[in-house]
Amino acid sequence: MRCLVVADLHYSLPQLDWLVSAAPQFDLVIFAGDALDIGSMVDFRAQIVVVKKYLTLLATQTRVILCSGNHDLDERNAEGEKISRWISEVRELGIICDGDSLAIGDTLFTVCPWWDGPLVKQRIVAQLRDAAATNRPQHWIWAHHAPPANSPTSWGGKRFFGDVDLVQWIMQYQPSMVISGHVHQSPFIADGSWFDRLGQTWVFNAGLQPGRPPTHIVLDLDANKAFWLAAGEAQWIDLGAPLKRPANTVEEPPDWLTSLDRIADPSLARPRAAAG
């Protein structure tokens, strides 16, 4: 199984275009939060409408997992805690979202919401407890927008921006992987990284760059490798080996990576009136 991982697209339409174009080459797309941008000049309700259309297209191409990030919160629940109501609605499209789990072969995916208070936090605690109580498959992968605290994946340059509680949950359950985002600069700055390991758990944060395509991670579970692809950079790590830094440089790109480089950019297409 090969999974395409993105996060923090923040209503970037060129990046969403690329994601739809790339999706058919993967068995699963994991979107680890912040599809929207609360700082955008585009009305938040309009962003939701447009992003839902992209998600509809994605869902026709492959399986999709989407967890909420802090930019995706559009409502408060009865207890006053911020939640993402619109993300719960994409379940109607067949998308696995906040609070859901998905089993594919020997891999269980658990999707955690962004939590803004003790009640949603307790729902995550119960969600993880219930998932752990089932017959645990070989691989257990969490989507959780904030990376763990005190990890290179949550390093912002001056301090860490990670989730302390997530560290405790990881150490308690030791999932195979945690897919995060949230801290945009971590992979690109000194002492930061796109990957880390806590005990037996790999942690990932693709980071954010402008332009198309977005920074992204590919989990090749059959080959037991993770690839990180950014502007001018292509790195990989062996998921079956101990943590080692720096990551390996991709010197012989696999066929799927070469195919990604050939995805056409619709923004560069000439209008018909200009054809001559």
User: Helicity, in percent?
Assistant: 10-25%
Give the biggest beta sheet: 7 strands, mixed
Shape: globular
- Tell me the total number of β-strands: 15
Low-confidence stretches: 268-276
Run of helices and strands: EHEHEEEHEEHEHEEEEEEEH
Order of strands side by side in the largest beta sheet? 3-2-1-12-13-14-15
Structural class: alpha/beta
Rg from alpha-carbon coordinates? 18 Å
Q: What's the helix count?
A: 6
Instruction: Give the N-to-C terminal Cα separation.
Output: 44 Å
Question: What is the residue-averaged pLDDT?
Answer: 93
* Strand residue content: 15-25%
Write a structural description.
- The structure is a single chain.
- The protein is an alpha/beta fold.
- It contains six helices and 15 strands.
- The strands form three sheets. The chain has a seven-stranded mixed β-sheet, covered by helices on one side. Strands 6-7-8-9-11-10 form a six-stranded mixed β-sheet.
- Strand 8, helix 5 (164-173) and strand 9 (177-180) form a beta-alpha-beta unit.
- Helix 1 (13-22) runs parallel beside helix 2.
- Residues 268-276 have low confidence and may be disordered.
What distinguishing features does this structure have?
276 residues; alpha/beta; 7-stranded mixed β-sheet; 15 strands; 24% helix
List the helices and strands and how they pair.
Elements: E1 2-6, H1 13-22, E2 28-31, H2 44-61, E3 63-66, E4 75-76, E5 82-83, H3 85-89, E6 101-104, E7 107-111, H4 118-133, E8 139-143, H5 164-173, E9 177-180, E10 195-198, E11 201-205, E12 216-220, E13 225-230, E14 233-238, E15 248-249, H6 255-261
Parallel strand pairs: 1-2, 2-3, 7-8, 8-9, 9-11
Antiparallel strand pairs: 1-12, 4-5, 6-7, 10-11, 12-13, 13-14, 14-15
Helix pairs in contact: 1-2
